[in-house]
Here is the input.
Amino acid sequence: MNNPISPDLSVTVAGIRMKNPVLTASGTFGYGREYAPYFDLRELGALVTKGISLEPMAGNPPPRICETPSGMLNAIGLQNVGVEAFLQDKLPYLAELGIPIIVNILGHSLKEYAEVARRLDGQKGVAGLEINISCPNVARGGLSFGADPRLAARVVSRVRAVTRLPLITKLTPQVTDICRVARAVEEAGSDAVSLINTIPGMAVDIQTRRSRLGRINGGLSGPAIKPVALRLVYQVCQAVSVPVIGLGGIRTAEDALEFFIVGARAVQVGTANFIRPRAASEIIAGLRDFLIARGEASLKRVIGSIGV
Ligand SMILES: Cc1cc2nc3c(=O)[nH]c(=O)nc-3n(C[C@H](O)[C@H](O)[C@H](O)COP(=O)(O)O)c2cc1C
Here is the structure.
């Protein structure tokens, strides 16, 4: 029997064993090192990196973020150092942490996704790939890969063909039926799905009558999107048999527990990192306290325990 003082928080997602189910969300935790002054990164269940593309990307013109009620809009434009600089300058530090490192990847064509994945395959310290399918597809006039189940599946198949790394496909909420996309990527070989990415939104400065972002619109994140995310996670948990990673507006252990109860195997903490850099660490401690207070030995019995 487990020691009641130390409940078992471990989970396995996409074949990746994690000592707890709390991950950091892509784009909200830099390349990891930026958060090292705030807490011991080895506490994390896993760390998800900023989205990595084949070539470096400069991102959008500023302003790139703005605050909105209970949330924020961002139009970063997928700024990142590119896969080669990531391998040389960022991965060695992450690989030393000894926790699973999941690299979030993006592309503007099927070929680009596959090439990024191929270069990450077999690299020491890379535990898995999270495929961001919310990117604009250049060949289809900018419609996102994730908006079409067939196209989403093709991204996964192409990546699957070049790597044996565990694959997590990150779904966009901007679709009519997210379950169709989830089932399509599962069939194409995705070992898990994560959701949700940001929800498109807009804010206007009434003085200048211009968008408050350098681009017309951006992606909404933070507590404002939590109820939307929770419902979609619940639906996808019913639709697929691969593990589901839930995210969207999680700030506290209580928020995370809602996602576990609807069936998420793990959670990611995003915007909360900008407000409380120790948020992920506090959520891990809060989950432990929750189980101890109820005399539960393991988180596993909480997962999917929603009543009807
Ligand atoms: C500033 C910023 C940058 C982001 N960059 C990425 C990215 O590169 N790749 C990705 O898949 N998601 C990215 N996201 C989306 C988050 O990982 C997450 O899906 C979303 O913010 C919802 O979670 P949250 O409400 O906890 O922040 C970004 C979000 C923010 C706020």
